[in-house]
Design a protein that fits this description.
233 residues, alpha/beta, 8 helices, 7 strands, 41% helix, 23% strand
Amino acid sequence: MNGLSANALDKETITKAYARWAPVYDLVFGAVFERGRAAAIAAAERIGGRILEVGVGTGISLPDYSSANRIYGVDISQPMLDKAQERVTKFNLSHVEGLSVMDAEHLDFPDDSFDVVVAQYVVTTVPNPEATLDEFARVLKPGGEIILVSRVGAEAGMRKALERWFAPAARKLGWRTEFSWQRYAQWAAGHGTVELVERRAMPPFGHFSLIRFAKAGGAAVQRADRAQKRAAN
């Protein structure tokens, strides 16, 4: 849908960037992204079951999932996963069924493997976001949800100009600053089997959003509709 642009990332850049981030990631980003992580986990646990976390990183989210669920974490960075494994061992996280190095665009799972796919701060860091979202939908069971916490770029104004100015430096750090909502919307419309359930601004400063897509099958959409009706009454 969208070809690679001047803001494109490559896997080598991403892998090297996150190897550098691994020793300090929790310290630098732990508190900053805490609200987004909590919102994503809460949304995932409303569905529950077998949950895939793509871009699990150092495993900072893993202790916060209920032990009633089964969690599989994947990441492109082995140093990040080494930190995640340390966390699994330290906290005896028996509900984590596996951790693997894996490319988000080529997930090594059969179709319809998971009840939920969670990706926090991932979509705008991969070389081909639409291909990655396609993979999320492929491994998701009908009626399940894709739950993202992801950057949504500014449409206009000073923030858009700053994002464009910072883009070359951001690529070296392993992420994009510019990523419009239109790309998410166009992907969902073109895919045909997913439907937007929720979009909610997240801190810091509303630069990120919680985004939920339900895969055709009805169960997730029906649950969301019932919850909305109860909230309205």
